Structure prediction request, 964 residues.
Amino acid sequence: MARTIGSNGTRTAEAIRQAGVKLIYKHGYEAMSLRQLAAEVGLQSGSLYKYFENKQNLLFDIVREHMEDLISKAEADLAGVADPLARLKAFAAFHLRYHMTRMAHVFIANMEIRSLEDEHRATIIAQRRRYEGLLEDTLRRGAEAGVFEVREPKVATYAIISMLTGICMWYRPGGRLSQEDLIGIYTGLVVGGVTGAEEAVAAPLPLEAKASMATSPAARTPKAKTKTTGKATAKRTAAGA
Amino acid sequence: MARTIGSNGTRTAEAIRQAGVKLIYKHGYEAMSLRQLAAEVGLQSGSLYKYFENKQNLLFDIVREHMEDLISKAEADLAGVADPLARLKAFAAFHLRYHMTRMAHVFIANMEIRSLEDEHRATIIAQRRRYEGLLEDTLRRGAEAGVFEVREPKVATYAIISMLTGICMWYRPGGRLSQEDLIGIYTGLVVGGVTGAEEAVAAPLPLEAKASMATSPAARTPKAKTKTTGKATAKRTAAGA
Amino acid sequence: MARTIGSNGTRTAEAIRQAGVKLIYKHGYEAMSLRQLAAEVGLQSGSLYKYFENKQNLLFDIVREHMEDLISKAEADLAGVADPLARLKAFAAFHLRYHMTRMAHVFIANMEIRSLEDEHRATIIAQRRRYEGLLEDTLRRGAEAGVFEVREPKVATYAIISMLTGICMWYRPGGRLSQEDLIGIYTGLVVGGVTGAEEAVAAPLPLEAKASMATSPAARTPKAKTKTTGKATAKRTAAGA
Amino acid sequence: MARTIGSNGTRTAEAIRQAGVKLIYKHGYEAMSLRQLAAEVGLQSGSLYKYFENKQNLLFDIVREHMEDLISKAEADLAGVADPLARLKAFAAFHLRYHMTRMAHVFIANMEIRSLEDEHRATIIAQRRRYEGLLEDTLRRGAEAGVFEVREPKVATYAIISMLTGICMWYRPGGRLSQEDLIGIYTGLVVGGVTGAEEAVAAPLPLEAKASMATSPAARTPKAKTKTTGKATAKRTAAGA
DNA sequence: CATGAATGAGCTTTCATTCAT
DNA sequence: AATGAATGAAAGCTCATTCAT
Prediction:
């Protein structure tokens, strides 16, 4: 029988990718074994090595491609939107929609950064920073324009992204509230947070003070120690401990 | 020479607990080996079993005691505060301060729920729900009193807690912004979010519609399948896959 | 070079089985380590797991296959023999010959029942009962026919089988007495025992009295307690203690 | 409070001995851990070493003392009995009664010979031989006197002892048949076996032929390899493999 | 007499990975 | 493109044993 378009190899590669996402999401990267993965796609575990160099690279590929997808789609969505408030709402809506749609990928990208080796993690963190930049720039411009009450755009960026990303910890399709309902609720919280309520709580901050933050939240994630011997699985050491 | 005060056993137990927190924070529970842990406290790995039943129980003990501490301190902090807005601010301040102070414990409690066995996870999730209840009740009462514009207190609870918890992903002591600065910023975002900006964005929600959420975000964390045969190490399966 | 006929896998499996029998016979199941076994067949210990699920199953497979072999050969040997005395002699001869030929298997099947987990032990005990049934039925029919003086066929069955099985505690091929010599001697003891000498010793037994025996000698072997928690290696508890 | 007569130490020693018998009977020597044993008598496992040199010696002490008891009681029972048939019956009755009464000790002495180190096993086997000698001499004298039809007293000895010993594989007190009932049945089998039925089955044996047996069944039990290094638990190698 | 902390060796089992076929 | 046999390392855990107190 003739090969179907997209060779078996291509199809197997795709199956492995999908099964990998599923299993890492379910069990975690460390806890997923390649035997499991191979069984999921109907192969022997040794055969997987036709499709990736090693387990670490499978994870890296999944996360990197996810980040590329996330960034390009976000940039496309915000492309024509100039007004800061409109951009903020568009960002929030995009982020939420994306996170409700591709929960497994998002979950992995957030949880398994610690399982990436140094170099790979650096790549992903750079992508993350670029993505965060979309929001940070918007907040900064809105603040300059006087429409947002945001004195620390970086902090606000982290806060807002944490809030929005949190949705994939509990959201399930088919619930009482539709995706659009939820987008409405979350956007309300975000917009309310950055417009005009702030003075009610906080005293003016000393802007000239030394920053209390790392250059990015990403820097907080544990860093793998340099691989040393043999085939040993790379272990990670956290910067912050 | 006589035994030093606070027998070796007690001190070793404490050292193991602390090293455990440190290593799980750095490497993750799955990636931390008991040999590593033993080396960290200057023991043979087998000797650790004087101090815990098994690796899983070490994790559970750490997380459970952390949650107990978190809850009791939170309840103490909110004890006399009746006014919804004051309670909200007190909760935010407590949560942030706690998370900036005990980052490793908090990080572990959030990240390693997936590594807990069924029963243990259920215990922790129940504690989490109780903690979330402190905020949810406050939001609900504030909404009833007309001081908060919150139509979905549960969703708002998840959103706010996600935002506040996010601080331990990037905060480092000694930065430009003091803990109190950051508490000011975050509290501003939270209070702004729940007071009066919402109508600007979202259409009224159909309150009677079917819920789109699990009973708790906790339910999203992967659930271990029931142990079936033999001595096999328990693996986890995610509810959502 | 092409794979040798009978793939390596098949040959390795057979080598493992044989080495397993040899080492369990020599050291006992508990005392045999899988490292020993692997070394015996020239493998790493982990590689054994291509060939059995775990150590316990290796033992079970060995014992179960032995019992199947024993039963089927015994049934074949007795197939056409109707006369009770002839059947008794045929049984004794078969049992002795088998036990002198496959001493290691027999020894293991008798000694290591205690090392089997509950379910496995139940299977083996059922097989043992079936085998014993061959003798018991013969004794019973012989007693009914008046050719045997056997008032308690079950007790006599246990006694005779114990006597015959005992041969594998001391027999070695190449000794002064041939297998056929020994069969002659043992058969004489057995036949003499069940034909007509009994009244010389014992007073008539109250047949209606309550039995003083377990349903089978097998039931005397220690029974593993039901596995309860975690991954703990199953220990055994004796029924009679 | 004053010490009771028989110091605590003496009582503890006795408790350890009894618990040891119980646990070795239940689990087997290899499978019994000293932690279990210590727990059974309410001690820490390290404290056991006040009462024995090591685990191996505990086993040896138990078995040796059992054998001494067995032999001295048997010799006492047979002391005044001269007539071969009476001696045979007395031996059988004694052996059965003893085995029904002290099943655990007997079981251990039979099953755990393989777990004894070389030297210890040699001691026990010598005792066993002496015990067997009581029966063998009786058979020999009976044969010489023409009252027994036994051409191979050694073989008959092994056969008879195996048969009688087998009772402790299935007997339980409180069953339908009393100890005396069972003694009657077994004695009938034994006496019948050695009196006059033999010619019915076997052709005369060539007495001058080379023996097909080891000097004692005991020699069949595995022999421990010489202890080699450090504190390593001694492993055993079977002579017959 | 007994504890309790610790050792060091060894166990069964799992894993990522390799490679001849 | 895939198999299946095997490796070598490491994991969690248990054990008999020691010894200062």
